[in-house]
Description:
The chain is an all-alpha fold. Helix content is 79%, strand content 0%. It has a domain at 33-81.
Amino acid sequence: MLFPAIVFFLSLLGIVGLFVVKYLEEQKQKVLLPPVLRKKADEQAIQLKGMLLAKRAEVANLPGNFLHLAHVGVHVAALEAARFARYLEAQAHRLADFVSHKHHFKKGETRSEFLKQVKEHALNNNHNNGSVVGGSQNDSEIL
Length: 143
């Protein structure tokens, strides 16, 4: 936004300057700029006009090119955001494992009396029958 504003105000100053020179020449009835300088300025103006006309086609393509570049930029930004989210997810899992008391889980003793009795009963039956838990041939043996 700054560049177009600078170009606009420089152009405006140039136009105002031309009007001032024209006004002074009419007031004094005398040419202020030497003919050699006027001729060089006219040649430069014609060259500038030719360059602007040649660049008109490229300037017409700018919105399409800008739209394509914006699409590519948004696509790349989305991919990078997804990669960063995956990295943060992995770091969150690492932190959760580090903080968790279950990181190195070891089965502890139960506090429930009922579960303790069930465990003792299952151990006593297995030692008496010589079978593994759940490996009994006859379900009536367990009961």
